[in-house]
Amino acid sequence: MGSGVAVTPSPVSDLRTFVEKQSGQRIFDCYQCGKCSAGCPIDYAMDLGPRQIMRAIQLGLKKEVMQSTTIWLCVSCETCSSRCPAKIDIAKVMESLRILASIEGTKPAEKGVDLFHHEFLSSMRRYGRIHEFTMSAAFVLKTRDFSGMGLARTLFSKGKLVIMPPRVSGASEVKKIFSATKRTVGTSVPAAKAEGKH
Q1: What is the pLDDT of residues 139-178, one digit of tens each?
Q2: Residue 5: helix, strand or coil by DSSP?
Q3: Which end of the chain is more exposed for a tag (fewer CB within 10 A), N or C?
Q4: Do 16 and 58 meet the contact criterion of CB atoms below 8 Å apart?
């Protein structure tokens, strides 16, 4: 994968089996054209581009895939999926890898991203949509990373960051979706206990 380290490919792998079952995508349909990486808006920040992740799954390189920052930096914009000439929903593949990481307890390669996901879902569950101020405040307080406070002040002065969460029609329906998800997977995402901390 460009590191100069010898790897042992294994096309018949539990990794590919899991990803195909979870995502419903045919991994070997990818013929490495590179359109996914070319269109990805944050490919520049990833250690492995989407094309490289797809190839690594084909080769059964689980360690390289699960330890990459790519699966956590993916923002699910679906640009890769819409550009894929083989009609592979690569965003679904990335999501299946995050699910696998969660199941196996793999620590995310991108610092704080698991906490960010948790606070994102917590905000969605509580208000029916994302409330950036409370979500960001909870994240900053838990990580003790105050480096973005200057940006927060700028957003606040421009009216892009509001303190009070807006009323959202359909918020109760969103809560029902979270409850249904909890019954389906047997876990609360995010946990009610964690919600009580803010």
Answers
A1: 888 888 888 777 878 888 888 778 888 787 888 888 888 8
A2: coil
A3: C
A4: yes
